[in-house]
Sequence to fold (64 residues):
Amino acid sequence: MPRVVPSEIIALIDQHYSAFNARTLDVTHATVAGLMAIARLVDELPTELLTISGADYSDLVSGV
Fold:
């Protein structure tokens, strides 16, 4: 399996959701596939590459 790096996750978010305001993004049949892909990539991110803690980590977990 390929190694996932944070920049790939950011690129996927930008590709699918750059035109959306994150606070108003609706989950629909048109957005669910991209959201699931992002969540899966975050789950596959090696822990040594996840260098955040505290409130930022809580925000990440909450968002995923």
Observations:
- Helices lie at 6-17, 32-44, 54-63.
- The chain is about 55% helix and 0% strand.
- The chain has a mean pLDDT of 86.
- Residues 6 and 50 are 8 Å apart (CA to CA).
